[in-house]
């Protein structure tokens, strides 16, 4: 039996679909308040759903009965400054609980971290798995939560846990809908006027799921892998998406000072409405930074051929039209 945490999320749902269509027996955790994603509705009879909060050790222990492999995709993602401390605590404690149980029961784990937990390379260099985030200078709550969660997995590995860590770049795909990375494409569809000068890694959600399964079924342990298909400028992505929607591409460069105004305005609106800010300080600053990633380690490990990002963008545009 295979357990997936976070199967109601974008990546977790794609992973569950991949596993169930390949004939695997899977069990998925969900919170009592979470619905089952539309992507998995056709597979209801083939998936065993269990209610288990990551902070509830007893519920987690019950969910792990008969399990030999765990994919840990669950994580709280929020841009609200008020959520920073509870988000870090929830993500780290939940991971620690799962690590402890898997180590105790001899269950193999693939843990989903993020490029947010990987440090910056020198200008002009590609970021590799050997770069590490400098925690003392990091302000992004999500990045800190992913770094500290990863540290829990490394602790578990030192204590005998059989685990592999994946650090995906910006995951995109049609099944995201209008939330998460899908919100970027929905904003473009509505007529985004600005683009930023930054560069980041992009990867199709199917490829992340395939890499996770490939690593799980290998004899690799105690390693971390950047999962990223292509390094692309935000301008090229927004232009391609706009063309896919048949509208004018963003033509105005949003310089860092403009992004500064943008995140401050978003924070004020979020405070007044009680919602999530459309962009936070960290995201605004990152949008103008060039970060390019080396994907040779994962390609050499499992022989993955990444899907071209322009194909994924086309699929997203068709789904949102």
Structure description:
The chain is of the alpha/beta class. The chain has a domain at 2-175 and 201-228 and 292-307: Rossmann fold (3-Layer(aba) Sandwich). It is built from 11 helices and 12 strands. The protein has helices spanning 10-21, 57-63, 84-105, 141-158, 182-189, 205-216, 234-245, 256-273, 281-286, 296-302, 309-320; strands at 2-5, 26-30, 47-51, 69-72, 108-112, 163-168, 170-172, 194-195, 199-204, 223-227, 230-233, 252-253. The protein has a 7-stranded parallel beta sheet with strand order 3-2-1-4-5-6-10, sandwiched between helices. Strands 7-9-11 form a 3-stranded mixed beta sheet. Strand 1, helix 1 (10-21) and strand 2 form a beta-alpha-beta unit. Helix 3 runs parallel beside helix 4. The longest helix has 22 residues, at 84-105. The protein is globular. The chain starts with a strand and ends with a helix. The mean pLDDT is 89. This is NAD-dependent epimerase/dehydratase family protein. Residues 2-218 form the NAD-dependent epimerase/dehydratase domain. One of its GO terms (cellular component) is cytoplasm.
Average pLDDT taken over every residue: 89
Q: Helices and strands, in N-to-C order?
A: EHEEHEHEHEEHEEHEEHEHHHH
User: Judging by the overall fold, what is the CATH architecture of one domain?
Assistant: 3-Layer(aba) Sandwich
Task: Give a quick account of the main beta sheet: strands, pairing sense, barrel closure.
Answer: 7 strands, parallel
Query: How big is the Rg?
Result: 19 Å
Number of helices: 11
Instruction: Look at the structure and give the CATH class of one domain.
Output: Alpha Beta
* Beta-strand residue percentage: 15-25%
**Any idea what the shape is?**
globular
Q: Low-confidence spans: pLDDT under 50, at least 5 residues?
A: none
Structural class: alpha/beta
Give a count of the beta strands, DSSP E runs of length 2 or more.
Answer: 12
CATH topology of one domain: Rossmann fold
Please list the strands of the largest sheet in the order they lie side by side: 3-2-1-4-5-6-10
> In which range does the helix fraction lie?
40-55%
End-to-end separation in angstroms reads 39 Å
């Amino acid at each position: 039996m295979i357990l997936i945490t976070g199967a109601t999320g974008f990546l977790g749902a794609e992973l569950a679909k991949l596993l169930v269509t390949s004939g695997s027996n899977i069990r998925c955790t969900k919170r009592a308040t979470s619905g089952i994603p539309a992507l998995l509705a056709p597979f209801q009879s083939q998936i065993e759903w269990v209610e288990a909060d990551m902070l509830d050790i007893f519920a987690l222990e019950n969910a792990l009965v008969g399990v030999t492999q765990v994919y840990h995709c669950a994580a709280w993602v929020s841009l609200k400054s008020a959520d920073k401390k509870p988000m870090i605590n929830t993500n780290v404690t939940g991971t620690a609980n799962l690590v402890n149980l898997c180590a105790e029961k001899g269950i193999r784990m693939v843990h989903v971290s993020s490029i947010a937990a990987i440090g910056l390379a020198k200008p002009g260099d590609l970021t590799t798995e050997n770069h590490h985030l400098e925690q003392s200078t990091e302000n992004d709550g999500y990045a800190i939560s992913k770094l500290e969660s990863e540290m829990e997995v490394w602790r578990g590995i030192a204590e005998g846990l059989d685990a592999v860590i994946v650090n995906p770049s910006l995951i995109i795909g049609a099944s995201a809908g209008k939330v998460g990375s899908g919100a970027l494409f929905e904003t473009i569809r509505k007529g985004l006027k600005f683009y930023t000068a930054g560069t980041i890694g992009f990867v199709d959600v199917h490829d992340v799921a395939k890499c996770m399964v490939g690593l799980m079924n290998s004899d690799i342990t105690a390693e971390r892998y950047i999962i990223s298909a292509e390094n692309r400028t935000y301008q090229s992505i927004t232009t391609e998406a706009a063309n896919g929607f048949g509208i004018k591409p963003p033509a105005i460069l949003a310089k860092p000072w403009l992004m500064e105004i943008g995140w401050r305005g978003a924070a004020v609106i979020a405070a007044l409405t009680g919602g999530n800010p459309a962009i936070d300080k960290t995201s605004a600053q990152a949008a103008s930074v060039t970060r390019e990633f080396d994907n040779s380690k994962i390609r050499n490990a499992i022989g993955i051929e990444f899907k071209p990002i322009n194909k994924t963008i086309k699929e997203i545009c068709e789904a949102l039209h």
